[in-house]
């Protein structure tokens, strides 16, 4: 290549990206160089796969309520610092009511929870990633959910990056980003301030119920109901037990949906259904119980009759029992039959014809036994138990002392009435322990 041809070569304009955290609070000046204020927010129109920023809002110095609005064609350069406008200060107008299809990025996206469909993970939006086109156009390309984006927003990126490079130069923190393409993030016009992702049944099915419950709690009421109604019955029942009691009431007591609500309660373990019903207003709870199947209604009504901080209030009647003359092979056949309906399949109980507790069997004992062994020969020789009126702290002490996964609950005549699992105890006892600690 000759020097002349090299000199005539036109170098391509380098691609320029910008993060929202880098633009927020940046000084903005007008066409004459007069200070306008600091960048407060940006807006886009829905729905666009890669939307252009249409407006920007500027907070004048010393103003806490006033926001000035500029159009995207009034920006002279996004790359400049301060950001330069092509309009004069006198041409800017106070912020006006948003259009139906418009969302502001700071208030509607930052710190919102989304679901990364590719990984089915709940994430929080820490930053936004823009493509700067010809200096004057800003295109929303990605949301950023990575740890580094949070560090960037806090203003610590340079310092933290330097430390990590010195200590662990090959750290994934330095090489991996948390960018999710905006084309995968599909807000709806009906709910521009809600969940920022189109939830598919496939992605929902891979979410833990506690994660999905947290998403539902953050959604506006109408969107929450739409997402919840799209869930299959089993998934909805698992999520319902995880959400806040106020959200439970909103989801269960809607007019026209009482039959599905009753079906949900019948699908849940009896103790979980009793917990949910006990949080509802009495009239609503009784109306739902009246729509449940008689057997399910009796089970939850019995559980609701106990104080919540007692063994009776903690226990579930959703358990598996065997008779002493059954064999190990019989037990496995029964477990295969009940597995779709029973939540806890680890510890089981041997009872006589009057349902009195005779012994305990766990999966380990079943696997170690021969198929022809009778259960009375396989079951544990001890029967640690509690009673419905025992306190939650007493139950926790028994489970801790004997290192149990679950403990049976029997009445005064030794009839098996329920079972308490270790997670049920932790759910009840840990909050009480924290309250006592705070009082101290």
What is this structure's SSE topology?
Layout: H1 3-8, E1 16-19, H2 20-23, E2 27-29, E3 35-45, E4 53-59, E5 68-71, E6 75-77, E7 83-85, E8 93-94, E9 102-104, H3 105-108, E10 113-116, E11 121-124, E12 127-133, E13 137-144, H4 147-154, H5 157-167, H6 172-175, E14 179-181, H7 201-205, H8 209-218, H9 221-229, H10 233-240, H11 245-252, H12 258-267, H13 270-278, H14 282-291, H15 294-304, H16 311-314, E15 321-322, H17 328-338, E16 347-351, E17 357-362, H18 363-368, H19 375-378, H20 392-402, E18 406-410, E19 416-421, H21 422-439
Parallel strand pairs: 2-7, 15-16
Antiparallel strand pairs: 1-12, 2-3, 3-4, 3-9, 4-5, 5-8, 6-7, 10-11, 12-13, 13-14, 16-17, 18-19
Helix pairs in contact: 8-10, 10-12, 13-15, 20-21
From the structure above, extract its key features.
440 residues; alpha+beta; MgtE N-terminal fold; CBS-domain; 3 domains; eight-stranded mixed sheet; four-stranded antiparallel sheet; 21 helices; 19 strands; 20% strand; disordered N terminus; disordered C terminus
């Amino acid at each position: 290549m000759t020097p002349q041809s090299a000199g005539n070569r036109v170098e391509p304009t380098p691609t320029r990206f910008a993060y929202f955290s880098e633009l927020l609070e940046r000084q903005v000046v007008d066409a004459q160089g007069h200070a306008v204020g600091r960048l407060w927010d940006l807006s886009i129109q829905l729905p666009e796969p890669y939307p252009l920023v249409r407006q920007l809002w500027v907070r004048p110095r010393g103003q806490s309520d006033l926001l000035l609005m500029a159009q995207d064609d009034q920006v002279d350069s996004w790359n400049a610092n301060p950001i330069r406008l092509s309009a004069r200060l006198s041409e800017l107008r106070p912020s006006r009511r948003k259009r139906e299809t418009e969302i502001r990025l700071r208030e509607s996206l930052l710190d919102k929870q989304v679901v990364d469909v590719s990984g089915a993970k709940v994430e929080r939006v820490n930053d936004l990633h823009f493509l700067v086109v010809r200096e004057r156009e800003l295109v929303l390309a990605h949301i950023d959910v990575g740890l580094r984006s949070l560090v960037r927003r806090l203003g610590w990126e340079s310092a933290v990056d330097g430390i990590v490079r010195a200590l662990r130069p090959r750290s994934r923190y330095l090489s991996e980003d948390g960018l999710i393409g905006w084309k995968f993030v599909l807000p709806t016009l009906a709910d521009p301030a809600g969940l920022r992702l189109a939830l598919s049944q496939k992605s929902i099915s891979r979410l833990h119920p506690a994660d999905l419950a947290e998403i539902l709690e953050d959604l506006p009421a109408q969107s929450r109901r739409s997402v919840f109604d799209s869930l299959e019955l089993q998934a909805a029942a698992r999520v319902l037990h995880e959400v806040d009691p106020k959200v439970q009431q909103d989801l269960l007591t809607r007019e026209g949906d009482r039959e599905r609500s009753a079906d949900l309660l019948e699908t849940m373990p009896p103790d979980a259904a009793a917990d949910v019903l006990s949080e509802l207003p009495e009239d609503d709870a009784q109306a739902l119980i009246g729509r449940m199947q008689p057997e399910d209604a009796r089970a939850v009504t019995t559980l609701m009759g106990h104080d919540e901080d007692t063994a009776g209030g903690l226990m579930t009647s959703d358990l598996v029992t065997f008779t002493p003359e059954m064999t190990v092979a019989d037990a496995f056949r029964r477990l295969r039959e009940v597995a779709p309906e029973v939540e806890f399949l680890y510890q089981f109980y041997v009872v006589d014809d009057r349902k009195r507790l005779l012994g305990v069997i766990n999966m380990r004992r079943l696997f170690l036994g021969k198929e022809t062994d009778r259960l009375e020969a396989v079951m544990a020789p001890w029967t640690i138990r509690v009673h419905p009126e025992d306190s939650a702290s007493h139950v926790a002490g028994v489970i801790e002392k004997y290192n149990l996964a679950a403990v049976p609950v029997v009445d005064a005549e030794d009839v098996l009435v329920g079972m308490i699992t270790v997670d049920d105890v932790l759910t009840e006892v840990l909050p009480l322990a924290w309250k006592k600690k705070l009082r101290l």
